UniProtKB/TrEMBL annotation:
Domain of life according to the entry: Eukaryota
Domain GH3 C-terminal, first and last residues per copy: 449-561
CC annotations in GO: cytoplasm
Domain GH3 middle span(s) in chain numbering: 349-434
Protein name: Jasmonoyl--L-amino acid synthetase JAR4 isoform X1
InterPro entries linked to this entry: GH3 (IPR004993), GH3_C (IPR055378), GH3_M (IPR055377)
Amino acid sequence: MLEKKEILDVEKVIRDFEVITKDAENVQRETLKMILEENGCAEYLQNLGLNGRTDPESFKACVPLVTHKDLEPCIQRVADGVFSPILTGKPITTISISSGTTQGKPKFVPFNDELMETTLQIFRTSFAFRNKEFPIENGRALQFIYSSKQIKTKGGLFAGTATSNVFRNSQFRKAMKAMQSECCSPDEVIFGPDFHQSLYCHLLCGLIFHEEIRLVSSTFAYSIVLAFRTFEQVWEELCDDIREGVLTSRITFPSVRSAMAKLLKPNPELADLIEKKCSGLSNWYGLIPELFPNVKYIYGIMTGCMEPYLKKLRHYAADVPLISADYGSSEGWIGANINPSLPPESATYAVLPNIGYFEVIPLKENVEEHMQDNGNVSFLSMEPKPVDLTEVRVGEEYEVIITNFGGLYRYKLGDVVKVMGFHNSTPELKFVCRRNVMLAINIDKSTEQDLQLAVEEAAKLIAKEKLEVIDFSSNVDVSTDPGHYVIFWEISGEVSDEVLTECCNCLDRSFVDGGYVSSRKVDAIGPLELRVVRRGTFQKILDHYLGLGAALSQFKTPRCVGPANNKILQILCDNVTKNYFSTAF
């Protein structure tokens, strides 16, 4: 009976979700009121003159839009141990550290119990809808999750990546049990100090429990692809471990070895079965269902900068459904995937109106006010005013602004989303791109999505030779006159100069931004350059970030390497083996 009581009541979760989304406007007002009542005594809000008011109109009139740079001094004071309420009414005891892969520098973000609860609410909501489509029971999850080492700030606060703070919270494992999604790996593997060793042990645990695995997941699609690329290299060693019941010497940490020893027993029959399955695969197609015959789906964030990994993930998955996980960031969560049957490229996220107060900035062309001044026309460029969550229009794109229970007020997240529709009265959003990840030299503004589409188009040329782009990045080179785009490719094998020259031309032609095309035609932007880097280059970039304390669970390949990411640019440039210039214009 006890086990049954611990199982999540998915029907109740869905009923609760339907209630809060039917009147999203009022729920938003009440949520803002709660946030301001709980944190009204905070120094930040006190200084803005709210004077106890909690209505949206007063809030917007008093509180400015901010970025992380604006809040950095306040957050640093929190991290330094200033005891007075600075951003929140109750003391912040934990700091989340962003991956730093977008801006080149990790950010400190407050984390508290309220944010943990919103995290679990998002997890429960998406699981409830997911479990209706793809029910799992009496099984385990192969979760490629990793926790970075927690540090202590100057003020004695615990600081770790956002994912690590979640994984270390006692409520996380309890919630995973209730959702029948408990990781098959022991804690010692998840919290192991070396991700290479943890990854190997995750794979080994998955094989030991191969018939019980119901889902394969990680925070990002990248981590799942990396795991099975690694499997291709180490599968024979894994089979040896299973056959002999003895863990490889590559695992050196005593706590990890001890935990794995409790699971690993000699099993020559299983080793033979895995060897037979692996030997029978064609180029590893369908590897995941072959290893885990009862797997129901593969789960992780698969939108935005993760979309380039979907082709490889589908290769490993064959017919196993891919489901994109929920929408959020180190700063907080926004929406849940309540349409799990949609392919990741079409995934939408229903905003939960009670986990934060949300506004959005319309991303139309800047408003231009024409003013006559002594017969001359001048232009005053104005950013459109933010609108409330329930005032958005289907088909339009917006930048997200969040106000949450963790001390962020009218915080510009930097994400661009498109409104695809509504669930009751709450919008369903599609993630488009990061607003500040952009290639720009002249009047051009090529986004992360533009880059991704160009790479996908050019990669078709090497796909004909059964090769693939393993990973890619970009840079604006202004050391030449005129400046030009540089695209870095790591490729799975050797490609002829002729084909790569055509790839370079294709990349150049595939950037569709009007400013780029017109600038290229008049040579205001120089010919695009394709630089091919040696195998393992992007692994070196990953290792660099892990060496700085990032967690694999949170890693995203930097798609546009700017001035703040000098070390990454150096790694890329030091590993270039060939380069080509476009003749497309």
